[in-house]
Amino acid sequence: MKRSFSSLIIFGLLWAGAAHAKDPSVLDEVMAKKSQTIQSLQKLIGPQYQLVGAYKTSRGFRSLKTGDELVASVSSSFAYGDVNLDGRQDLAVAVENTQGQRAFRIYLGESDGSLKLHREGSKVILASDAKTESDSFNSVQISKTGLISISHLDDLTMAWNRIQKFQFQNGEIILIGQRLVSTGAFGTKVEDQNFITGEQTVKTMRSVSSPSVFFKSQLPKAAGLTKLEDSIVTKD
């Protein structure tokens, strides 16, 4: 799997910092800590699963990555943060099995410092394409306010980006909105959808010299908000 933009920046800064300091041990120490974190996560998610990005496909064959390649590839597949705002560190993580089936899990922090599986969605992480060896999964993030974001990006053409936004509500992980970014001959269109208010905003930018087109509308009325385990992501 490709590195996300954020991981590329992080690793670029790490390399630059190490080179400036003329001390390769700085980078080695960072990579070692990341490797330890990934090993701990592997124990947590179980032997039947790997972090998304751990597998590589070549000519139709899947194999596990190792070393620095593994660390760089899976770093955007998990994020720590306080999802339920109880002051404890929680975990959001994308996992996959040997057959390429993927899932998204939320682990909540316990009082003893351990992590316990809280919810899992089996249809919110797109599978990689074995034929083209492309992977549109981009990253997982948790904001300071507990907002969970799952990003998918067309890694071949960069023509679209979809970010789903989840939030902890009354013990459930709820899909509260999404952002859709598409690029083409028309320019760039950014659609923000708020499933709580039902409001949708669309902004189209045709060129640097042309004014942006912006409008608001209401989404079709839904029966209710969707839980993580019932959420589905598509490329459309």
How would you summarize the topology of this molecule?
Layout: H1 5-21, H2 24-45, E1 50-51, E2 55-58, E3 61-64, H3 67-74, E4 78-81, E5 90-96, E6 102-109, E7 115-121, E8 137-142, E9 148-153, E10 160-169, E11 172-184, E12 187-194, E13 199-205, E14 213-218, E15 226-227
Antiparallel strand pairs: 1-5, 2-3, 4-5, 5-6, 6-7, 8-9, 9-10, 10-11, 11-12, 11-15, 12-13, 13-14
Helix pairs in contact: 1-2, 2-3
Write up this protein:
This protein is α+β, with helices and mostly antiparallel strands and 236 residues long. The chain has one domain. It has 3 helices and 15 strands. Strands 8, 9, 10, 11, 12, 13, 14 and 15 form an 8-stranded antiparallel β-sheet that branches. Strands 1, 4, 5, 6 and 7 form a 5-stranded antiparallel β-sheet that branches. Helix 1 runs antiparallel to helix 2 (24-45) and helix 2 (24-45) packs across helix 3. The longest helix has 22 residues, at 24-45.
